[in-house]
């Protein structure tokens, strides 16, 4: 080996983003393996590679004992003290050896081990790069599909989009560029495994953070997200700044901001509502686009009874109950929706079913006396 070899390792390390020392250690390990394999040696050896000129030295290691049982592993105290009078029992002696034709063998083995270590190091780098990005968003290119699973090229690594994380009805074409939400990063023997999703509510949240500067800068906060991927979603936004309209900021000029997100999600409808600490107001907002006449909340049961105009009942409930279902998810309140006619009819029924109340005593008549009169009359 030569200084050219050292330079090649350093350049390779820079190209792959791997510390050269990792590769130098790999070479030394490779030389140890090569020595034991090609010279049928069971001895403990150490290889030292000069980081400047590429020269290497092989040292056999033996333990100092009174009487050696294994001359490959041990050396007598008398022999050891011939080398250096200071050696004592249990000391480790290193002696350099000069195996014939070892340089040629070493180069072959070093190349294999280096490539193996490069692959291992690259896997480690990729894992470190993505392990801290769970719950984050990435852009990838559809690479292939196998038995319903979609594989995405993220550059240095492949991500997996399982069937249950795919938007129903969404078509994944080869070379399509899409955004995905990282749900988990696993460390496997074959390298890091990155699991992504297109249905996770976190994807919608991250898309708004990318598209809306006010959210990215913390001026507008996303309080909650409710999503039925591929059809409709609701997002509740809030700001402390009275000069900012949180809903308008998310919609953008001529609806451009939200439209970019709708396009990324292949036409998924998105309702943006204003968050409120007042549950009555929040539930009313969450049922948008329906208009609410009145709300009554029961904090113990965490249920909100809502009245809407007759002509807006179907809009408030939504197709197959979707609008009401998403509003309930968004607010974490159970929602009971009735039209004005239904609410009036229910109130009349309750009034009829209410028990008759006892007539009040005449003005000026003591309550106790009225009760006594009533008892004597009954008798």
The string of secondary-structure elements, in order, is HHEEEHEHEEEEEHHEEHHEHEEHHEHH
Task: Quote the distance from N terminus to C terminus.
Answer: 123 Å
Write down the overall geometry.
elongated
- Provide the CATH topology of the largest domain: N Utilization Substance Protein A, Chain:P, domain 4
Say which CATH homologous superfamily of the largest domain is assigned: NusA, N-terminal domain
Q: What structural category characterises the helix and strand content?
A: alpha/beta
Radius of gyration: 38 Å
Determine the mean pLDDT: 84
Walk across the major sheet and give the strand order.
5-6-7-9-8
Number of strands: 15
Beta-strand proportion: 25-35%
Helix residue percentage? 25-40%
CATH architecture heading of the largest domain: 2-Layer Sandwich
How does this structure look, described?
The protein is of the alpha/beta class and 379 residues long. It folds into four domains: 3-118, N Utilization Substance Protein A, Chain:P, domain 4 (2-Layer Sandwich), CATH 3.30.1480; 133-197, Beta Barrel (OB fold (Dihydrolipoamide Acetyltransferase, E2P)); 201-275, K homology (KH) domain (GMP Synthetase, Chain A, domain 3, 2-Layer Sandwich), CATH 3.30.300; 277-355, 2-Layer Sandwich (GMP Synthetase, Chain A, domain 3), CATH 3.30.300. The protein contains 13 helices and 15 strands. It has helices at 3-16, 20-38, 77-83, 102-131, 201-211, 213-216, 246-251, 256-264, 279-286, 313-317, 322-331, 340-353, 367-378, and strands at residues 44-49, 56-65, 74-76, 92-97, 137-146, 149-153, 158-161, 177-188, 191-197, 221-228, 232-238, 269-274, 294-298, 303-308, 334-339. The strands form four sheets. The chain has a five-stranded mixed β-barrel with strand order 5-6-7-9-8. A hairpin with a 4-residue loop joins strand 13 and strand 14. Helix 2 (20-38) crosses helix 4, helix 5 packs antiparallel against helix 8 and helix 9 (279-286) packs antiparallel against helix 11. Residues 363-379 have low confidence and may be disordered.
């Amino acid at each position: 080996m030569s200084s050219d070899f050292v330079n090649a390792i350093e350049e390779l390390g820079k190209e792959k983003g791997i510390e050269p020392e990792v590769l130098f250690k790999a070479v030394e390990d490779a030389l140890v393996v090569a020595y034991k394999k090609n010279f049928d040696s069971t001895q403990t050896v150490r290889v030292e590679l000069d980081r400047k000129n590429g020269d290497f030295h092989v040292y056999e290691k033996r333990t100092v004992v009174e009487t050696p049982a294994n001359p490959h592993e041990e050396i007598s105290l008398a022999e050891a003290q011939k080398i250096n009078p200071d050696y004592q029992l249990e000391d480790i002696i290193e002696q350099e050896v000069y195996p014939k034709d070892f340089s040629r063998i070493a180069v072959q083995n070093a190349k294999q081990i280096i490539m193996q270590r490069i692959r291992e190091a690259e896997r480690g780098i990729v894992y470190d790069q993505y392990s801290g990005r769970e719950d984050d968003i990435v852009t990838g290119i559809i690479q292939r599909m196998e038995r319903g699973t979609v594989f995405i090229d993220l550059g240095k690594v492949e991500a997996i989009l399982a069937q249950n994380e795919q938007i129903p009805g969404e078509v994944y074409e080869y070379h399509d560029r899409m955004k995905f939400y990282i749900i988990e990063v696993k460390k496997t023997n074959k390298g890091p495994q990155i699991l992504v999703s297109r249905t996770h509510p976190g994807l919608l949240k991250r898309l708004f953070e990318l598209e809306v500067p006010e959210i990215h800068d913390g001026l507008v906060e996303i309080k909650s997200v409710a999503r039925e991927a591929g059809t409709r979603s609701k997002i509740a936004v809030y700001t402390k700044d009275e000069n900012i309209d949180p809903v308008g900021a998310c919609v953008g000029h001529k609806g451009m901001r939200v439209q970019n997100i709708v396009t990324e999600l292949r036409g998924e409808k998105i309702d943006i509502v204003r968050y409120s600490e007042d549950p009555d107001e929040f539930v009313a907002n969450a049922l948008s686009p329906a208009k609410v006449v009145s709300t009554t909340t029961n904090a113990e049961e965490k249920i909100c009874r809502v009245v809407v105009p007759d002509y807006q009942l179907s809009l408030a409930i939504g197709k197959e109950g979707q609008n009401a279902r998403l509003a309930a998810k968004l607010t974490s309140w159970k929602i009971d929706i009735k039209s004005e006619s239904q609410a009036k009819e229910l109130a009349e029924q309750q009034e009829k079913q209410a028990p008759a109340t006892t007539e009040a005593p005449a003005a000026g008549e003591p309550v106790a006396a009225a009760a006594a009169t009533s008892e004597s009359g009954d008798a």
